[in-house]
Specification:
heterodimer; A: about 300 residues; mainly alpha; 2 strands; globular
């Protein structure tokens, strides 16, 4: 029973991170129908920035919570800036192009960003300091869930709630929903579509950076390649829940996290990634619209 | 005044990039020895580089817009110069003859190291042509093409280890297994649209690699298979340099065969069906083309070549392991197709030579190879999405002389 609980909570932690990254995918796809392949790399850059800032701060004598907060804030800002710039360079000039073009451009961007970090930093795994302090009241439960995991789950919950409210009630959120429904109509109604797309990239990238900082604290080491697998899995989560839908991304992330956690716990730990990919293939075959997505009818 | 405005724009962009690359490019921390390294020089490079590049970028974008407007007005000759050159028999015949002579003489003129590189380039030509069927002709973005390559390589390695089969026996088996896996992948993804298809094929490629890596009893795991025999030549034992030359000619012959087949396929009924499918799926079905069959043949015929090249790869390197079949390999083959020009045979051949030979001869830049790959893919998509060699659509021009009789017949 305890083993089951451990796997359940482990899956919850994992799933929360997937959900955070999947939100970025789902929002971008909802608006410009593009799989942003470089999204995983933005997450990686967020983690790297946090590592660099945190290391510099610790070496200059700062400790404790202020390092965590400063590093996270800088990481989020930088990831958002990267997301914004990537969109301007690789996707904006391709608005009118056939659908394959931005996708290939996105793959190119992802390869570029990986190798940019590889050349500028290192190809080795870097140890990531655990920035999240140990919470004293979690002490008795430490064997099933540490305080890092608790912080991850809580952060994801808070961020998702804020995001949902933001999209529902603010002006920017409304503009985003309008653009997602019908770009041409939104433009006619006076929505600045280019700015909405930029905003979407900024918000999605910031979420990815939060995910990056959290997962790096959880796993404890990062390298330039972590974005690839995380990106694919987060995309799986987004598709699983129904791409374009925000609650869907969270649900998909959690289901994927649990699938992986239970499959590695009860079946075999060698095939961890195979389970995720199989789940993706099965979902796309049997329910391409996802669990919470609406299937679109193609009109000719 | 306009110059000043342009200048200011570039200055802002340069400052933005300096800020953007600051933490990753300037600071490097060594967490073990607790040293922070500040590399201010990189910042200066980025500043100057992005300042200059932003001018080029804006100029190119403007030129692209102008070109588009001209094309819309119908003022330009749509057939590019290179294409007209290629179609002129007086030009292409001597060029082809010279190329053929050069290709035959190559292993005798250069060292076996060079020959080896050339063989690798030819392998990528074949892979590119195979992927070109799926991506360029049928318009199905396949990001897991390397899986078929792996299937071919492992079929030779494993059949050789377990049953002692030779190269020539396995070559058709590799091709057949490629077809089989192509159909295996094709079936579930029939209903998927462009970008979902891309992700599923990517997942498929990764599944194959992960299985090869983890199923130790079957594929010997990450350590791979070693001591795979080179191809035989009627039982004659060849020295290492002779084997290299032999493999080169073998590869050359196979490439010619591929070009021949792909060229014939392109103009066949099925080839035209692929192109129709790429252009518009619904309209294509309305014209009575069987979508299922067309897609499956595209996957199967594309995978055949990868299976064959896989067998040759195993025979060439005599050692394979799953690390040779990562997603990057798929991305590389894809960029060959994209760079060369989707759907164009000459383009794909050119693309393969450029992408494989340039890094080999520019060893100094080997670190930047993948960086340049990524950059090229983005820039090509933005400025020249049709690739180096444009694949022109076949147009039947109405000459107009026998106007009345022609229209009456039609």
């Amino acid at each position: 029973m305890e083993y089951f609980l451990e796997l359940l909570l482990g899956g919850l932690t994992r799933g929360s991170i997937y959900a955070l990254i999947a939100l970025g995918y789902t929002m971008v796809y909802g608006i410009i129908e593009l799989i942003n392949f470089a999204h995983g790399e933005i997450y990686m850059i967020g983690a790297f920035t946090a590592l660099i800032v945190a290391s510099v701060l610790t070496m200059s004598g700062m400790t404790g919570l202020s390092v965590l907060i400063l590093a996270s804030v800088v990481a989020v800002l930088y990831a958002a800036a990267y997301g914004f710039t990537v969109e301007k360079i690789a996707y904006k000039p391709l608005r009118q192009a056939p659908r394959l073009s931005p996708l290939i451009s996105a793959i190119g961007m992802s390869i570029f960003l990986q190798n940019y970090v590889l050349i500028a930093q290192t190809s080795d795994f870097l140890p990531f300091p655990n920035l999240i302090p140990d919470l004293p009241f979690m002490e008795p439960y430490a064997h099933i869930m540490g305080s890092t995991e608790l912080v991850i789950v809580l952060t994801t919950t808070v961020v998702t709630v804020i995001l949902t409210l933001f999209i529902k009630f603010t002006r920017i959120g409304k503009a985003m929903r309008a653009t997602a429904q019908d770009r041409g109509m939104a433009m006619l109604a006076g929505v600045n579509v280019n700015r909405v797309i930029s905003n979407t990239f900024i918000i999605g990238s910031a979420l990815a950076a939060i995910g990056g900082v959290l997962i790096a604290s959880h796993i404890g080491r990062i390298n330039f390649y972590i974005g690839f697998l995380a990106g694919i899995k987060a995309f799986t989560a987004a598709v699983l829940g129904g791409i374009g839908s925000i609650p869907g991304a969270v649900l998909g992330g959690l289901i994927l996290g649990w699938t992986e956690s239970f499959a590695t716990g009860y079946v075999s730990s060698d095939y961890e990634d195979v389970f995720a990919f199989c789940l993706l293939v099965l979902i796309l075959i049997f329910r391409p619209a996802g669990l919470l997505g609406r299937s679109t009818i193609q009109k000719v | 005044m306009k110059i000043l405005a342009e200048f200011r724009k570039s200055l802002i962009i340069s400052l933005w990039f300096m800020l953007l690359t600051f933490p990753i490019l300037v600071i490097r921390v060594n967490t073990i020895e607790k040293i922070v390294e500040w590399r201010w020089r990189n910042m200066a490079f980025i500043g100057i580089g992005s300042f200059l590049f932003s001018f080029v970028w804006r100029f190119m974008l403007e030129r692209r817009e102008r070109g588009r407007k001209l094309a819309e007005a119908g003022a330009v000759e749509t057939r590019p110069f290179s294409q007209r050159l290629l179609e002129d028999a007086r030009v292409y015949r001597p060029v082809l003859a010279a190329l053929a002579l050069f290709a035959v003489a190559f292993p005798f003129l250069f060292s076996s190291y060079q020959t080896n590189i050339m063989t690798t380039a030819l392998m990528y030509v074949m892979l590119g042509l195979g992927l070109n069927i799926v991506v360029g002709l049928a318009g199905l973005l396949d990001l897991g093409y390397v899986a078929f390559y792996a299937v071919g390589a492992y079929s030779y390695a494993l059949l050789n280890v377990h049953f002692g089969l030779g190269f020539w026996a396995v070559l058709p088996v590799g091709a057949l297994l490629g077809v089989l896996f192509g159909i295996l992948l094709g079936f579930p993804v029939l209903r998927l649209r462009g970008d979902y298809l891309a992700i599923v094929t990517l997942g498929f490629g990764e599944i194959i690699r992960l299985i090869l890596e983890n199923w130790n009893e079957f594929s010997f795991g990450p350590s791979g298979v070693a001591n795979i025999p080179r191809p035989g030549l009627f039982g004659i034992s060849l020295s290492l340099s002779e084997a290299t030359i032999y493999l080169y000619f073998l590869m050359l012959a196979l490439c010619l065969f591929t070009v021949f087949v792909v060229n014939r396929l392109q103009d066949s009924r099925i080839g035209r069906a692929w192109i129709a499918l790429r252009e518009d799926e619904v309209a294509c079905q309305a014209m009575g083309i069987d979508k299922t069959k067309t897609k499956l043949t595209a996957f199967a015929l594309g995978a055949t070549w990868a299976g064959m090249v896989g067998v040759i790869f195993a025979a060439k390197t005599t050692f394979i392991n799953p690390a040779s079949f990562t997603f990057l390999e798929s991305a590389m083959i894809l960029s060959i197709v994209v760079l060369g020009g989707m759907g164009s045979i000459v383009g794909v051949i050119l693309g393969a030579f450029i992408l494989i030979l340039t890094p080999e001869y520019l060893r100094a830049f080997s670190n930047y190879r993948m960086l340049l790959f990524g950059t090229t893919m983005v820039l090509m998509m933005v400025f020249r999405p049709q690739g180096i060699v444009t694949n022109v659509r076949r147009i039947y021009r109405f000459r107009g002389r026998e106007k009345n009789s022609e229209t009456a017949k039609a």
